[in-house]
Design goal:
Layout lengths: L19 H9 L8 E3 L2 H5 L7 H13 L10 H13 L2 H31 L3 H27 L6 H7 L2 E3 L2 H28 L12 H21 L8 H20 L3 H6 L4 H16 L5 E3 L4 H23 L1 H23 L3 E3 L13
Length: 368
């Protein structure tokens, strides 16, 4: 997939994103907060057995085959008119945060498309090949749809170039399962929370893309269900020392979202949301959903946990300020803040968690 590069019209230029090259550089970043591209052990993926959940698996494959969103990701005439009106109305600061949101989103969606497509190419296991083809199809639609909105700003990303040039991170299959399950479910929780807010307050819907979020996030929900079935079919992934990895990925995914969202306060404010309240709602939904597969959940109501998450936000802002300051002093300050952030993450990791029995019924419905 690739998009035509266009120069950004000066009338709608977003601060920090003056061209497609600027947007592409942002998408190619590899930082603690930026979406990554992944590769994995294809041979191990090929050996996955889903026979213990065969009935639920076949029902899910039938849902994918039905493809209820095959006609959803198409822009109508009203979309174009609303988009043009919204671009003219956005303040430069809000425009920057919204464009940053779109770039991060398209990178994340395209990351899933690449990973799932590569797994499908390299495995012979018919169950895994079929699943990965379906999910790659969905993520390709999502990425392309977001990229169309970026092109309204004149800064569409060349996804083909992004695929060739962005750094890839190797993850063992089980890490893929933990991290991607959570990413898909938290993506659902984020999108549905935004959709419900704007459903209640349509005057806050400053861009038409938000009208697509409900059916869109149901794709994310189903993707998460697929990984839940894989993990429940292979219970060793949820036992023993793997609980420590589950705990790590729960915290890593939650903290990344929490810190990243607090870099976009104006975006949330424009939708009538407070970044902190919105994030805790998203985390509560995700935590509730994750009980279907993970035997532990983080104690989101713990004052120590909330204080630690807020400290990570503070330290992230301090690191950004030190980076902008530059020079030797700025570098030393940034290193010190990075150490403090690592220590804070470790303290959060050691906080008590909640344990529970797994439900007999694995599948859930997107009822939020």
């Amino acid at each position: 997939m690739s998009t035509e590069r266009q120069a950004m019209p000066s009338a709608i230029a977003a601060p920090g994103f003056a061209s497609s090259d600027d947007a592409s550089r942002k998408a190619k970043e590899t930082t603690l907060l930026s979406p990554r591209f992944y590769t994995t052990d294809f041979k191990a993926m090929d050996a996955i057995d889903v026979s213990p959940v065969r009935a639920e698996w076949d029902a899910m494959m039938a849902e994918y085959e039905g493809d209820n969103n095959h006609d959803h990701f198409q822009r109508d005439a009203a979309f174009g008119e609303e988009a043009r009106a919204s671009l003219a109305a956005l303040t430069p600061e809000l425009r920057k945060e919204f464009v940053d949101f779109l770039i991060t989103s398209v990178t994340s969606e395209f990351s899933g498309c690449i990973l799932y497509n590569e797994i499908a190419k390299h495995v012979d296991n018919p169950d895994i090949k079929q699943l990965m083809r379906f999910m790659a199809r969905d993520e390709s639609r999502h990425a392309g749809f977001i990229n169309q909105s970026l092109r309204d700003f004149g800064i569409g990303i060349d996804l083909g170039d992004l695929k060739r040039t962005k750094r890839y991170t190797y993850f063992k299959p089980k890490y893929i399962f933990y991290a991607t399950y959570l990413s898909e479910k938290i993506g659902y929780a984020r999108y549905i929370s935004i959709y419900r807010q704007l459903e209640r307050h349509p005057d806050k819907r400053f861009h038409p893309i938000f009208r697509w979020f409900e059916r869109w996030c149901n794709d994310e929900f189903r993707h998460g269900e697929s990984f839940a079935l894989i993990m429940r079919a292979n219970p060793h992934l949820l036992q023993g020392g793997n609980k420590l990895w589950i705990r790590f990925f729960l915290l890593a995914v939650y903290a990344t979202m929490y810190v990243r969202d607090h870099t976009r306060p104006m975006l949330h404010n424009a939708m009538g949301l407070d970044s902190t309240e919105y994030d805790w709602q998203v985390l509560q939904i995700t935590s509730e959903i994750s009980r279907q597969v993970f035997p532990i959940t983080l104690d989101l109501d713990s004052p120590a946990f909330r204080a630690g998450m807020n400290r990570l936000v503070h330290l992230s802002r301090s690191m950004q300020a030190a980076q902008e300051r530059g020079g030797v002093i700025g570098q030393l300050q940034r290193a010190g803040y990075a150490v403090a952030a690592g220590w804070t993450f470790l303290r959060l990791y050691t906080l008590p968690v909640k344990s529970h029995d797994l439900p007999q019924q694995v599948r859930m419905q997107p009822a939020w």
